[in-house]
Predict the 3D structure of the following.
Amino acid sequence: MFHRAILAAGLAAGAAIAGSAASAQTPLPFALDWKFEGPAAPYFVAIDNGHFAEAGLDVTVEAGDGSVNTIPKIATGAFPVGFGDLNSVIKFLDQNPGAPVTAVMMIYDKPAFAIVGRKSLGVSEPKDLEGKVLGAPPPDGAWAQFPIFAGANDLDVSAITIEPVGFPTREPMLAEGNVAAVTGFSFSSVLNLKRLGVPAEDISNILMADYGVDLYGNAILVNTDWAAENEETLKAFLAAVAKGWVDTVANPAAAIDSLAERNPAIDKDLELERLQMALDQNVITDWVKANGMGIVDPARMESAVAQIGETYTFQNAPDVSLYFTDAYLPEGGFKVE
């Protein structure tokens, strides 16, 4: 069981800073999963365009160093809300039964897990990996899903040479032709290759979600104990987040301007391209356009949990109701168009 003694101090602080939605400008810290890069821009847009202020919230955004580390921040109450990978949440809850954390708004309808290859080296689609060398950093999130991807595409894994590589050397090795493809996040590996001089037309971006992998990606996470006491605050926060994404879709360049105010060192053109890739491939998908942003497809969620079970041994019987709730969303989610 999750050690709730750890939770007490964090929740006390969370309650003090969170308050209720009725309080003007309620402070609300929000933990990102990663650095201030393109896909983080919508949260700053929600600040700059006044959406959080209109909801009575004073939101501060803190950079992160990966979803694995973000989730405990939410579970202990150090942050009431955050942004992280749903698949990591599922495993965390299996390993820490009773931990007060869940997903409440899906952002990456399709995760960025990808196989990124070079067409000139013979990789354009999944089957092309057979007979080739695939570079994969052992801790890479996309590599962790490769067995699911391989099974969904009937790949002969014995015919693929797996080359363990480091994160710093992953794209350089592909650019130099030492491997034919790598595992990685699409909007990171593709842009890294371009920066290394690989022509865009030579890059194959094989998004796992387009080839049989039903997993969801990053979502807004919440401490469930805090949420139970601050329901209206949470609903107002999520509605403001949605407005930030809608504004970003309407004007991505302005969103990058908001990002640059917090991280002046960014390459604005690069981060605009990264943001646009995330919007087109991961966030504003055809399913989201048709069904609304924030919600999930129950059948796909069941399939996703079953696929996780192909590469992870559950200690406890999976329970989808623990991993995601739409209780704080409007019916049908948020409209993005």
